[in-house]
Each structure stands twice: as structure tokens, then as C-alpha cells.
């Protein structure tokens, strides 16, 4: 567009012709709206995409400046979200004006749930929508950690919960948070104020927690996962069967005391903020406002550094959760985590904090269930592995005075989990510690075994195990190099294998995880980023190809199988130099290494497989050589082209090589 045209457009939009004022702003400040994912294009899954967004009422204008053509976005006033009188710099700003006179949005009306259908949950008086979801998922009984945490959480107590892997810790803190938010009116401000922050150590875990909580908010009757076991049994195949089922389902629906919610409730929103995905998009999500934010500390801190409003919001949180807190220290998020936690400290710990109206109505709770601790922030710390010492220290609340506020720049930051957790400003004078971790630390439904072999023979033993014991197998290695070596070998042996480690792009990580979840007999080669929290349905085997470095890692890795009281199998592959480590690992949880039985091996089969693995190794080595040579050739060619050097003649090649080397 020429300058003249630009000016003409400006004039046209300027005086009599202008119906709406137009505002110029940057791309990330446009009034983006959430868009439905078109399932038919195969974009229904996560696939690395957090969400699709669209924008309307935006005019793109090109202006010629001294620096060349510049695109500008103009938004019609009526299309801007919220107020009609904000300046361009306010578009996308997340500040909530406390003096705004917006009426509160009452909680959505929901049909009552007949708690006789879930008698074991009845005493927890959860919001009907949550009861409906539990019913649809077939979660008839609260797990022990849920049964212990939920009543205390409803009394606004701070909780440190330790329970075995796969024991339902996510819902133990998730249900009380969602119950509270679903039962409360929402401030009718332009933007939802942030009410709950859940910190998780890895991107995958954060995304999983966020989708787990979202499932509780969107109990759409889609016949998928959410169908109760009874309902799914009644599904019939064949045309007639389908017709009959349609009729039956309609009847059941009409008579159902839990009639499905026609529309998902927008009353509470949950979003994830993780690294490896567009931070602009994530900023926009935050600008629009969410009630519950699930985040990895690194990305959250990145975003917060440029966003004072978010930092302010953290001061007014209602819930703070540290999921797998001990792993966050290992993941190198220490400084970010500490910075974020510092924002949740009270200015003055003696500050009176007004009693917050607890979500439950007076009718639905008994006298004895009424909130006892009145406070602004409730903190939950959960893990499958928190040391007894740490629990004792937390109980005694031995928080050094300087933790309240680090006034002196030279004060050293915290450096261990104990240090960090002791910096948490629990509002509860005595946080409740619930330790349900089992004796011996691993889940009772887990069967353990080991293979002792030469390090060089581990490949063939692994291949043997995968062939001899089909199933979904998660293989842990301690290094990315180890995965890079093993992956092509298993591919050549036609194993359905994918990698998962921190040097893969986030999109690829999620894709590989999805493939592993959806493919029977799939194998995932993973580093310890997959050790914690990941709830992958039906992992049959966990294989410790390389020995874990700590007992906690052994417990968490093994905990990817045998979840929710299902059976599972964990196998240690022990090289000669690793025996000592295994002895020490087991000793630290008062176990004897000999308690773990050796896997029986059919030696005749193993011998045959050795030849195959040997051949695969040779093929892999030659393929690697060819790839390397091609890479070098291409590199030479591209560099020569870029320098305008001819590589054709021998002489020229010699000269060119010299030139390239000198360059
Ligand atoms: N009350 C329940 N009844 C049956 N299954 C449940 C119940 N609550 C949760 N689950 C299921 O149990 C599985 C494990 O739950 P979750 O991932 O919360 O475990 P976790 O204790 O956080 O494990 P980890 O320590 O490994 O992170 C999930 O698939 C979840 O849906």
C-alpha cells in the first residue's frame, strides 16, 4: 500500500465516515479469542498445540517508513475486549481494577447429584459437577490420600501429603480446589483473577495435571473415557444393537439422577504454562485471565519477569500447590521456584487476614466441618518421596527469620529442598502432614525383578525381554547419549520405539508420548524427565536399563506402572559395576538386594537373538558412516556454493578444501 493510499485510508476512517474509533496495537495485543479445534483436520489431540486462536475486527495496514514497509494492526473499538475507554497500551493488560464496580457472576446452576450413587464420596460434600465426573469415571471410592486430604483441605488447612506413586494425589488437591472455585461466585471483572497456582517440575506433568483438572470441568457425555464401567458394558455392536442402545441410553438419560450437563461450565478455567511452546500465546492466555494456572517454574518466571500484573496476582492467590516438589530442585528450577515462592510470602506474618467464605453452604456441611483456619492462602505440598527429616522440620516450622523477606542482596538463596520448603509461608500454624508412603516404598501391586549381565550384553537382554514379554514398556536410561545409541538399534530390530528426553522439541516430546500411549506393545526410551508424575494408562513394564542414581528415582520410575492399584512390573538391568549401587539403593530403604528375584531367561532364545542384535549393530554402524559422509559432503557443497568456490576438479577441490578450512 502506498503512502497516499495509507493517508487516504486514514482520512476515511478519520472524520464523518468513521463509525468506530480504531486503535493501533502489536500482534500479541490483539483481541484473540479461543477457537474450537477442528477435529476433522486431525487437530483434536494435544500434538504440541496448546490452543487455536482467532481474531476478528482487525485491519492490517502497511505503512511506508524510512525503515521500509511496516505492518500495523488496527482494532475497531467495539471489538476490543472489556472496557471502551482503555488506551492502546492497556490492550492485553492484565490488571484487575479492584474498584471496578462489576457485579459478581454467580456459580452456574447445576442439577443436584444423588450422592447415594457414590456413597463413599458422600461425606466429602463435593460440588455436584465433580461428583458427576467421579461417577462417570467410575471412581467409586476415594483413594486413601484423597480420603485423608479432602476433609482437611475443606477446613482450609495447609497440607503436606506423601503417598505412593499412582495413588491419586492430583485429585487429592485438585478436587478441593475445583470444589471451592465451582461453588464461589466469580468476580465480574474483565479478567478472571488468578486463584490457584500449581507448580510441577516437568512440562509433561504440568500439561497432564491441567488436562486432568479440565476433564473434571468438562463432563461432556461423549461416550469416551468418562463412561462408567456399567454404561460401557452395555454398549452393543451391530446396527440393531446400536439402535437398541440409543433407546436405552435415552431412557437412562431421562431417568438418570445425574443427567449429563449439556454445556461445559465456563465458570472455572484451567490453563498450563510450560516451556517449549509459544510464550506469546501463553501470555495471551494469562492476559485473558485463568482461575487455575499449572506451570513449570522456569517458564512462569520468564513470563513474570515482564509482567508486573501477574506478580501482583500471585500475592492474592487462594491456593498454592507444589506437585513433586522434591523433583523441582533436581530439575534445576531452584532459583525460579524460590523467586516465585517469595511473591507468595506475607508482607507481615502477623497481618490479620479476613476469613474467607468457604465454598460449602451451611446446609451441606455439619458444624464440625466448618472451616477452622481462616486465611488467604492455602498451601499443598505433595510427593511420593519426602524425607521423614524434612517432614519433621516442616512440622516444627524451623523457618529462618531471613526467609520472610530477603532484604540483603548478599543473603544466599536456598539450596536444598528442605531449605526451599522451609521458606514456604504456611498460613496454617501447624500444617498437617499426611504420610501414607508404604513400607519398602514401592507399591504393593508392583512385581520387581532383575537381570544381572555384562554391560555390553544389556542390548540383547532388553531385546529378549521385549520379545518374550510383550506389552507397553517404558525403558529408563540415565543419559541422552544412551538413548541416541539404543534407538536406531531397536528400530532396526523392528521394535515400535520412540525417544523422550529434554533435547527433543516440545512438540516432538508430546507426539512421542501420545504414540506411546496409543500403540500396543510400544516402547519408550526415556530419561528421568518421564520418571515423575506421568500417568500413562496401562504401562505394563518399567525397565531400568541404567540404574537410577537415587532411591527416590527408583521409586518414581517404577511408579509409572502399577498405578491406581493395578498390577505392574519393574525390572532392573544390573551391570557388574552397578551391583554395588543397587545394594546401596536398596539398603537406604531398609531392603536387601536379594529380595529382588532374578528374571528367568531362556538361554536358547537368547543365543539366537544375540546374532540378530550383532547384525543390527553392524548395519547401524555402516548406516552411521554413510550418514556422516553425506553430511560432510553436503556441508562442503553448501559452504563452497556460499563462497562461490568450484569443487569440481581435483586441483580445485584441493584448493577449495584449503580455502574452506581457512574460512
Ligand atoms: N478415586 C479414584 N479411583 C480410581 N482411580 C483414581 C482415583 N483417583 C485418581 N485415580 C486415577 O489414578 C491414576 C493415578 O493418579 P495420579 O496421577 O493423580 O497419581 P499420583 O499419586 O499423582 O502419582 P505420582 O506420584 O506418580 O505422580 C490416574 O489415572 C487417576 O485418574
From TrEMBL:
Domain of life: Eukaryota
EC number, UniProt record: 3.6.4.13
Primary subcellular site in the record, as a coarse category: nucleus
Native source organism of the sequence: Leucocoprinus leucothites
Keywords carried by this UniProt record: ATP-binding, Helicase, Hydrolase, Nucleotide-binding, Nucleus, Ribosome biogenesis, RNA-binding
Helicase ATP-binding domain segment(s): 150-404
Reactions accelerated catalytically: ATP + H2O = ADP + phosphate + H(+)
One Gene Ontology term, aspect cellular component: cytosol
Swiss-Prot/TrEMBL GO biological process terms: gene expression; ribosome biogenesis
Keyword Signal: no
Compositionally biased tracts (Basic residues): 1-21, 393-407
Stated name of the protein: RNA helicase
Keyword Nucleus: yes
Xref: PANTHER family: ATP-DEPENDENT RNA HELICASE DBPA, ATP-DEPENDENT RNA HELICASE RHLE-RELATED
Amino acid at each position: 500500500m502506498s503512502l497516499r493510499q495509507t493517508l487516504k485510508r486514514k482520512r476515511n476512517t478519520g472524520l464523518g465516515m468513521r463509525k468506530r474509533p480504531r486503535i493501533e496495537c502489536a500482534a500479541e495485543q490483539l483481541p484473540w479469542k479461543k477457537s474450537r479445534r477442528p477435529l476433522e483436520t486431525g487437530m483434536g489431540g494435544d500434538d504440541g498445540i496448546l490452543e487455536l486462536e482467532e481474531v476478528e475486527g482487525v485491519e492490517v495496514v502497511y505503512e511506508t517508513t524510512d525503515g521500509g514497509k511496516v505492518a500495523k494492526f488496527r482494532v475497531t473499538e467495539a471489538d476490543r475486549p472489556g472496557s471502551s475507554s482503555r488506551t492502546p497500551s492497556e490492550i492485553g493488560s492484565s490488571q484487575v481494577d479492584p474498584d471496578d464496580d462489576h457485579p459478581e457472576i454467580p456459580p452456574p446452576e447445576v442439577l443436584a447429584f444423588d450422592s447415594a450413587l457414590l456413597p463413599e464420596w458422600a461425606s466429602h460434600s463435593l460440588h455436584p459437577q465433580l461428583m458427576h465426573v467421579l461417577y462417570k469415571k467410575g471412581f467409586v471410592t476415594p483413594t486413601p490420600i484423597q480420603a485423608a486430604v479432602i476433609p482437611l483441605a475443606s477446613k482450609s488447612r495447609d497440607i503436606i501429603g506423601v503417598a505412593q506413586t499412582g495413588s491419586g494425589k492430583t485429585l487429592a488437591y485438585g478436587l478441593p480446589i475445583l470444589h471451592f472455585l465451582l461453588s464461589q461466585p466469580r468476580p465480574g471483572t474483565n479478567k478472571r483473577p488468578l486463584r490457584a497456582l500449581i507448580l510441577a517440575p516437568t512440562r509433561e506433568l504440568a500439561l497432564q495435571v491441567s488436562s486432568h483438572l479440565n476433564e473434571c470441568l468438562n463432563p461432556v457425555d461423549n461416550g469416551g473415557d468418562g463412561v462408567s464401567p456399567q454404561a460401557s458394558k452395555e454398549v452393543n455392536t451391530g446396527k440393531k444393537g446400536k439402535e437398541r442402545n440409543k433407546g436405552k441410553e435415552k431412557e437412562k438419560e431421562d431417568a438418570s439422577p445425574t443427567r449429563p450437563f449439556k454445556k461445559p461450565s465456563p465458570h472455572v478455567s484451567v490453563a498450563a504454562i510450560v516451556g517449549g511452546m509459544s510464550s506469546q500465546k501463553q501470555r495471551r492466555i494469562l492476559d485473558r485471565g485463568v482461575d487455575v494456572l499449572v506451570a513449570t517454574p522456569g517458564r512462569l518466571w520468564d513470563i513474570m519477569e515482564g509482567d508486573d500484573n501477574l506478580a501482583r496476582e500471585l500475592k492474592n492467590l487462594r491456593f498454592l500447590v507444589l506437585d513433586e516438589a522434591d523433583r523441582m530442585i533436581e530439575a534445576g528450577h531452584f532459583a525460579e521456584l524460590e523467586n516465585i515462592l517469595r511473591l507468595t510470602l506475607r508482607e507481615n506474618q502477623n497481618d490479620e487476614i479476613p476469613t474467607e467464605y468457604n465454598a460449602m453452604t451451611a446446609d451441606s456441611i455439619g458444624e464440625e466441618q466448618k472451616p477452622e483456619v481462616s486465611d488467604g492462602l492455602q498451601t499443598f505440598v505433595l510427593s511420593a518421596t519426602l524425607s521423614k527429616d524434612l517432614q519433621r522440620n516442616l512440622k516444627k516450622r524451623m523457618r529462618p527469620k531471613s526467609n520472610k523477606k530477603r532484604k540483603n542482596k548478599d543473603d544466599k538463596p536456598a539450596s536444598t529442598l528442605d531449605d526451599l520448603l522451609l521458606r514456604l509461608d504456611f498460613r496454617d500454624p501447624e500444617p498437617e502432614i499426611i504420610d501414607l508412603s508404604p513400607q519398602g516404598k514401592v507399591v504393593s501391586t508392583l512385581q520387581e525383578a532383575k537381570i544381572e549381565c555384562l554391560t555390553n550384553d544389556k542390548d540383547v537382554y532388553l531385546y529378549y525381554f521385549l520379545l518374550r514379554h510383550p506389552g507397553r514398556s517404558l525403558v529408563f536410561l540415565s543419559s541422552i547419549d544412551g538413548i541416541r545409541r539404543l534407538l536406531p538399534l531397536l528400530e532396526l530390530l523392528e521394535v515400535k520405539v520412540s525417544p523422550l528426553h529434554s533435547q527433543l522439541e516440545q512438540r516432538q516430546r508430546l507426539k512421542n508420548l501420545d504414540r506411546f500411549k496409543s500403540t500396543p506393545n510400544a516402547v519408550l526410551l526415556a530419561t528421568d524427565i518421564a520418571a515423575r508424575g506421568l500417568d500413562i494408562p496401562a504401562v505394563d513394564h518399567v525397565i531400568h536399563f541404567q540404574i537410577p542414581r537415587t532411591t527416590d528415582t527408583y521409586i518414581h520410575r517404577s511408579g509409572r506402572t502399577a498405578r491406581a492399584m493395578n498390577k505392574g512390573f519393574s525390572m532392573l538391568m544390573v551391570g557388574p559395576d552397578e551391583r554395588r549401587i543397587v545394594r546401596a539403593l536398596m539398603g537406604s530403604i531398609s531392603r536387601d538386594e536379594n529380595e529382588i528375584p532374578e528374571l528367568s531367561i531362556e538361554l536358547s532364545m537368547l543365543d539366537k537373538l544375540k546374532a540378530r542384535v550383532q547384525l543390527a549393530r553392524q548395519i547401524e554402524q555402516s548406516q552411521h558412516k554413510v550418514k556422516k559422509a553425506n553430511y560432510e559432503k553436503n556441508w562442503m557443497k553448501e559452504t563452497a556454493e556460499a563462497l562461490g568456490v568450484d569443487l569440481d576438479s581435483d586441483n580445485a577441490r584441493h584448493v577449495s578444501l584449503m580455502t574452506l578450512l581457512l574460512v
